[in-house]
Every structure is written in C-alpha cells, then in structure tokens.
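input
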Amino acid sequence: MSEKLMLFVGSYAESTDPGIYMYELDLANGEMKCLDRAAGLKNPTFVSVDKQGKKLYAIAETKNENEERIGEVVCYSIDPMLGKLTELNRRFTIQPSSSHIQLDHHSSYLAVSGYHGGNVGLVKIAEDGTVGGVSDVQQHTGHGADPERQDRPHPHSVQFSPNNRFALVADLGLDRIKVYELDQAQDKLVYRNEAVMQPASGPRHMAFHPKGKWLYSINEVGSSLSAFSFDAESGSLTELHTVSTLPAGFQGENTTAEVAISQDGRFLYGSNRGHDSIVQFAIDAETGKLTLVEFISSEGEHPRHFAITPDGEHLLAANRDSNNLVLFRIDRSSGKLTFTGHAAEVSKPVCVKPVQF
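output
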C-alpha cells in the first residue's frame, strides 16, 4: 500500500459551514486535493490526530442544557484510503470555551486549554478511541503586566513532556509556564512547579527539542522566543535566554503564533502575525541557545499556525486572514525555506496537521 500524506485543517467557521478539512498532499507536484470536509462544529480551530488509532479530535464551541457557553471535543474516525472523516462522538469539556487541544504521547488523554476561562481540562480517551469525560479541571488565577492582554489568566496551549510524565501549560495572561504531573492512576493533573517569564512576554505555544532537554516558548505579547533547559525528573524549567522574533527596527503591530523544530533538532521556526513571516533560528547543539538565520514571507496574512511534514522536507503555513495554506521546501543542510509556488485556498485556517498514513 502506497503511503499517503494527509493534511487535517481546523478553522474559524459557523456550525452550518465546513470547519474541518482533510486534504491529500502530493509532494511530487505540490498539489493539495481536498478529500473531505466536516460541518456541524462552531470554530473547530485546533485539532489533534492519533495516527495509529486513525482518530481526529477537534475542539468546538457550543451551549449546554442551560444555554451556557461551553467547549466540546468531537472525535472522528479517519479512513485514509477513502479520504473520509466520520464523526463518532462528542463531549462537553470546559467553560466557556477551549482554544487548543493536545493529545498525550500514549493517546490516553486530551488536554484542552481555556484561554477565555483561565482553565485547563484533562479529557480521558476511551479504549475504542472515542472521547470520554472530563476527568480534571485546573483553574488558574492572577494577572500579568499588560493591562489589556494580561488582565487575567489565559492558558493558551499544553505540551506533554517527551516522557509523558508532565503537562506543561503556557499561560499567556500570567507570563508563566505551569508544570503539572500527569497522574494516570487518578486521571488528574497535579501541580509541580512553574517558570516565571519576563513581564509582558505572553507565552502562547511550546515545542520540545528532539533531545528532550530543551523547551522553547513562543511569546505572543512580546514577540519573542524563550529557550529553557528542562529537567525530565522534576519537570522544572530554567530559562536560558529570550530573543526577538522580529527584525531590528520593525515598528508595526505584531503577535507571534506557532513554534516548531526541525527533525534533526538543528533549526527552530516561529510565525509572526503582522510582520507576516516565518522566522528561522539555528539551535546550538551544546547550549540549546538560538541564533537568528533569516525571515521569509509567509506568503499570506496572519500565519496562525504552521507544521513540518513527517519527512522533514516541507513546511505548511496556515494564513488565516488570506485564506490560504502555503507549501514551503526546507533545505535540510541550511534549514532555509523556499516557497514552492503551491498553495490551497481554505477559509480562515487556524491549524494544519500533516500525517503520513
């Protein structure tokens, strides 16, 4: 059976319109062919994919029996041969909504981040891969330095540590990365420690280095990247340094969005919304520190998310405000990006997940 490279895209959408898209990407010619789309979800902005179980999990917004806003997780089975998504079930999660979803490394749990509610939910996955109930909710309190963006907690994403022992939460509103231990016996998140960041940083998304000893946070409010050393036993973080994601002298408005690391661990990429670019850094193999390499246009407006393909040879950028998904080639020796000239039109894309089946 020949392998297929599928792209799963989450977007801003009304529940009456398609919100999740399934594409097949032909790397030989750069063509992105839409195979299926799913409606019935309001703002399914982020998705997480279990390749082995052939399941897709998406967040969405809805209302409960009391007509109160609440987040939900929707589970789909993936048929890569037929190019089809089939909804299996959906469950309520946290209030009033969720902004991000992350599968743990064993496909046992989903972590949902509540930007608007200041909370993080742990969702159990049933043995058949469908969504179980919420097993724990952690509520954050406090505020950060920026009176507009950080008046209260804003957990934006969760990353599970490489050993799956810890769930790290980037709280944009508190300028903190909170570290919870994943207690699988009790299906709970147990607070362990936290990293306090520079005021008005606003950590948004995170990426672990393939070696597992460094963590990188892209900071939305401060348009910066922070590098940390990570202790796999205690879960504690020690900041190494923080660098700007913008060119010197840039005066426009900007917020950052996504961060990802090349498979060989040599390069890191981040996205700028406003400057509308992908910034590339080299990672020092001894210290984990970052050195600027270059900026390249995202070939669209507001690159909300991007991802590297499983072969490590391409990068896909989801430009929300220009409604396009853009394909770049990665030079494996230099890490530099080149626009391939190929793009697909997608309505308000927020997240793209490439998976090889």
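quick obs: The chain has no helices and 28 strands.
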